[in-house]
Amino acid sequence: MKRKTQLTWLALAAVLLLTALPAQAMRYLTPMQAQKLCFPEADKFEWQQRKFTAGEAAQIQKASGVVLKLPGAWYALAMKDGQVIGAVIIDCVKGKHEAIDFVVALDTAGKVRSIEILEYRESIGDEVRRAGWRKQFQAKDSRSKIKLHDDIANITGATISCRNVTEGVRRVCHTWQLVLRPALVSAKRLPKLAAR
Amino acid sequence: MRTGLIIFALSKSRPSLICRKKTMKTMKTMKTMKTMKTMKTMKNVLRLTCAVAVLAGALTGFAQDDKRIDALENQIRAMQQRMDAIKEADAANRPPEWLNQVYGKGLTFNFYGEAKYNMTKGSDGNYFDPHRFVLIPGYKLSDNAYFNSEIEIEHGGVDDKDDSRFRGEVEIEQFYSDVKINDWLNWRSLGVSLIPVGSINLHHEPDQFYSVHRPIMYKYIIPSTWMEGSMGFFGDVPQVEGLSWFFLVSQGLSSANGTIKDGSKGVRDTRPGLNAKGDNRQLAYTLRFQYDGASSDTEWLKGLSGSASTYFGNYQETTTTDTDVYLWDLEAKYRWRDGFMKNFELIGDYAQWHFASPDAIADANVGDRMFGYRLELAYHHVLEGDQELIPFFRLEGYDTSEGSKDNNAFADTGSSNYLTYGVYYQLNRHMELKAAVRQSMDDADNTEFSIGVGYQF
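Above: the input entities. Below: the structure tokens describing the complete assembly.
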């Protein structure tokens, strides 16, 4: 029993020690930090907001099969030498209790370059931050399934977060393809894509 | 303004004093000049010359001033444009107001629940059971701390009256805060926490298992839902993506409410009261490692997850006898992601108790071991949207009378084994319907058919 008592005291001492350490916030990246991480080669980022029309929202929902909760998109165009080389789109989905903020970086054709978790507010399910799991989304676009247990593997114990982030990425890909990219084509900032 | 004064001065200008003196001198030296008319002409010429000279000088000054003014105006305009651009960029860089208004803040409430109808061959007959109704309040305490809890109403709730129709339970199933120190170290605060042994004890919402009832090893071997007053630490193992750890110090087993027994009790009754005073429990220690291959670069590993956990404590049945107790659990799950086995899922789970001094346990049927197992195969037939139909087949069982005693007499009563099979239908991510048979391979009276509805949202 003496050993157990010692262990208990050790645990308590560890707690006291740890409370003195600087704690890490669950906000891991700001959008500005994320943009540089996603497009290190960009020399300028142009942030834009766009509210969806009812028609656009319906189109995105129908194409992605995911309920659209945000009334618009907040995104940055990554620029290099005056040319648009991609976009960083902010989105948020619900975890078990709280919202998960994340960004999806797309190239001009709409393929996912990377996703970054900006803020994960809960203590359970934050395995979605694992780089290997996020890597699964690379090169996916609006034609991909982007579905949990299918082309995206699930993490046991973090199913809700995995599923919702997966759906969020799918929604972002369709938002780019249906609304944001066409607007840039109209503004002659991006060329039309060849017929798919 | 200054320019205006100069112009005014010029418009009123007359020959200066110097000019007049010069004119007089000229008149004297030009006595030979014959007519005053000529003098007048000269005067006029001189006046005109002076005026032109002054005007030219002034005009040169004006031109220089104008240039400076233009330059200043340009500078101001450029600065204004730059300030506008900065303001615009700043406004664009800030999240739009609507972004943070989508999901509520403050106290959140989630829920899970199960209602069942059981048809048994034994003495229980057919009966309805509103088994679990669980409220899950959560609150973000700070940037790095989160509060979690579960309030559980079981079997319809409770009533003070002895003859009440509400003979269930109200429990605090979880009640703690997690404080993040860094990715590999989080503190699970003092509170009520689930013992991290076995996946179904940790994740026991009805969508975490396909049968109507939880796997039977989670009743008698791992006494789910097993929560204790506790405190601990958890996190990711650094440099090994997918591997996490959990260490928990909790209150240990106690004989205050019941003892370790063979049969349908196992260790279930030795879970101590959460606020019991003066009983014989001691602290217990649990360590768990969990691996999930979803983050792996190796394709076949992506469908694999598993854990190994161990619980160590001491159990005292009488004032003179006690035994160290150990529980370990190994489990693995694999879901095929492609090929002809795509959407098949295989689950293996084995847990075993070891009692170091089995003579300290009075029940003559309890030896130095108990174990439980399940081996399960399920197929996910994916339908429209979130709908799934999952037929499953499970071999499961437990043995609370295994091994031997040191000195005392021991009688092995054998194990209980079941074939459990049925269908799980997921309507959407928040609701599922279940129908399953748990067929006893040892005693037909223990066979039952159940239907159930589960919720989680």
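Note for the figure: DSSP finds five helices and 17 strands in chain B.
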